[in-house]
């Protein structure tokens, strides 16, 4: 099980936000970061009592030398003995470009709020960009409904990666776009996200849970 405790960042850890935009993070390891992060958030959501992260962002994720992601900031975590995840309706500023816009209308923090942020980070992995925000996300949604082909959004440097699989590229982007659906009830939960990621062609036994 992936460890999600707060870790001291050393020279052995790399900030995801720095690594994401570079060619050092190839397609296979982007998938590894995606599945690792999704499993971490799934674990947090499935904890009893459950927790919400609320301020997840690229800046709050580091990866080790084997590209295993770790969340390093839980300043806004909610649940268990830390507030009440069901009744807290105070708008607390999350991370710019990662905050679910639905919060501004309802002030209702739910698991789908974290799912939205995971979707943004998945899109960042696909596009090799940081801070894409919700506007580009909704452009992708619009494009999907019109065309259904996401591989045009994958940079040439990734499409040319020997590990790149066009079906995986489409599926990963569909997962990400579903996570940032405008209506929270249309978004998958983290169990569903992990299940879909684990079906990607590139994944082999070393990435799967024993």
Which descriptors would you attach to this protein?
single chain, 210 residues, mainly alpha, three-stranded antiparallel sheet, two-stranded antiparallel ribbon, 8 helices, 6% strand, disordered N terminus, disordered C terminus, nucleotide-binding, Ser-Thr/Tyr_kinase_cat_dom, signal, Protein kinase domain-containing protein
Could you please describe the fold and organization of this structure?
With 210 residues, the protein is mainly α. The protein has a single domain (14-84, 93-200), classed as Transferase(Phosphotransferase) domain 1 (Transferase(Phosphotransferase), domain 1, Orthogonal Bundle), CATH 1.10.510.10. It is 40% helix and 6% strand. The protein is built from eight helices and five strands. Strand 3 (61-63) and strand 4 (69-71) form a beta hairpin. The protein is globular and about 45 Å long. The model is unreliable at 1-9, 85-90 and 205-210 (pLDDT under 50). Residues 1-22 form the signal peptide. This is Protein kinase domain-containing protein.
Topology:
Elements: E1 14-15, H1 16-19, H2 27-45, E2 51-52, E3 61-63, E4 69-71, E5 78-79, H3 103-106, H4 111-127, H5 133-146, H6 156-159, H7 166-179, H8 190-197
Antiparallel strand pairs: 1-3, 2-5, 3-4
Helix pairs in contact: 2-4, 2-8, 4-7
Signal peptide: 1-22
Domain Protein kinase: 1-204
Protein name: Protein kinase domain-containing protein
């Amino acid at each position: 099980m992936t460890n999600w405790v707060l870790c001291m960042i050393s020279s052995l850890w790399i900030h995801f936000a720095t690594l994401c935009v570079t060619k050092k993070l190839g397609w296979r390891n982007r998938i590894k970061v995606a599945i690792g992060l999704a499993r971490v958030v799934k674990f947090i959501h499935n904890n009893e009592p459950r927790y919400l992260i609320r301020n997840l962002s690229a800046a709050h994720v580091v990866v080790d030398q084997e590209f295993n992601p770790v969340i390093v900031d839980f300043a806004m975590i909610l649940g268990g003995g830390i507030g009440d995840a069901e009744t807290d309706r105070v708008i607390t500023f999350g991370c710019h470009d990662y905050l679910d816009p639905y919060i501004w209308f309802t002030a209702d923090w739910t698991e789908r709020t974290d799912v939205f942020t995971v979707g943004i980070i998945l899109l960042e992995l696909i596009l090799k960009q940081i801070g894409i925000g919700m506007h580009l996300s909704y452009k992708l949604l619009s494009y999907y409904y019109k065309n259904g082909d996401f591989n045009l959004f994958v940079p040439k440097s990734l499409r040319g990666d020997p590990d790149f699989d066009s079906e995986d590229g489409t599926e990963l982007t569909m997962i990400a776009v579903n996570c940032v659906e405008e209506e929270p009830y249309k978004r998958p939960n983290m169990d569903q996200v992990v299940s879909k990621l684990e079906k990607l062609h590139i994944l082999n036994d070393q990435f799967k849970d024993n």
